[in-house]
UniProtKB/TrEMBL annotation:
It comes from the Bacteria. InterPro entries: ATPase_dyneun-rel_AAA, CbbQ/NirQ/NorQ/GpvN, CbbQ_C, P-loop_NTPase. Gene3D superfamilies: P-loop containing nucleotide triphosphate hydrolases. Residues 176-259 form the CbbQ/NirQ/NorQ C-terminal domain. This is Denitrification regulatory protein NirQ. Residues 29-163 form the ATPase dynein-related AAA domain. Keywords: ATP-binding, Nucleotide-binding. Belongs to the CbbQ/NirQ/NorQ/GpvN family. It holds the Pfam family CbbQ_C.
Amino acid sequence: MTEDTNSCYYQVQDNEVEIFNFAKAHNLPVLIKGPTGCGKTRFVEYMAHNLGRELVTVSCHDDLTAADLLGRHLVSSDGTFWQDGPLTRAVRHGGICYLDEIIEARKDTTVVLHSLSDHRRELHLERTGEVIKAHKDFMLVVSYNPGYQNMMKGLKPSTRQRFVAMSFDYPSPENEANILVHEAGIKLELANTLVKLGADIRRLSDIDLKAAVSTRLLIYAAKMMSSGCHAQIACLHCIIEPLTDEPETIKALSKLVNAHF
Ligand code: ADP
């Protein structure tokens, strides 16, 4: 099934729209797990668009502090004043706050989410002493990639057990081909070939790849081809080089590309 709106195209994979809507109906926060570039962010954008809610996205990283989410005191010529961070703004005024790659954030940062993501739905601003009850249209969505390089980091059970969780994976071949056609404007036949190449690369377990090829990378290759770039060149620079630094692996993947194009 495809759901297409004018400004946010999303190829539905399974029952994720229903699950999200059920969670939303009860103000439950949502956790989305899945490899990078498989459609997590696009899904959240699509849901925000459908629900008519503002979306605030924060890409988490290991320097992200609680203040980056909550806000901080700033100094002006009139003295100091408090400025809400992106999470606080969404909690106050409503909207979906999406914390992308939450696993990258420091553990003390994720703890501020606890009172917000359980029945209390309130945010504690220690710096100002304020406790904010979440707006009725506030929703918290977080995502992470549970790939092997993240196994050690994990999310604390006390954090993850506050969320309705769902796993995403790369789209089915048919869906992925439709996505390539839509996003890059290529012919279905070419999209199918790229999807088959992607599936073959994802099946390779005996070579050292940090991550499997994402739908995002297949779209890059498709876009370059759509504007006349030779298939082998597009695949080398949009698929192989982003995946690995190893000369041997580059050679092996190039052979695979040549078998398809
Ligand atoms: P993630 O957040 O999982 O890293 P994204 O949502 O940014 O990945 O997906 C990368 C790109 O792949 C998107 O910009 C979009 O073009 C495309 N994409 C992936 N899955 C879908 C889908 N189901 N429907 C439409 N586009 C998709």
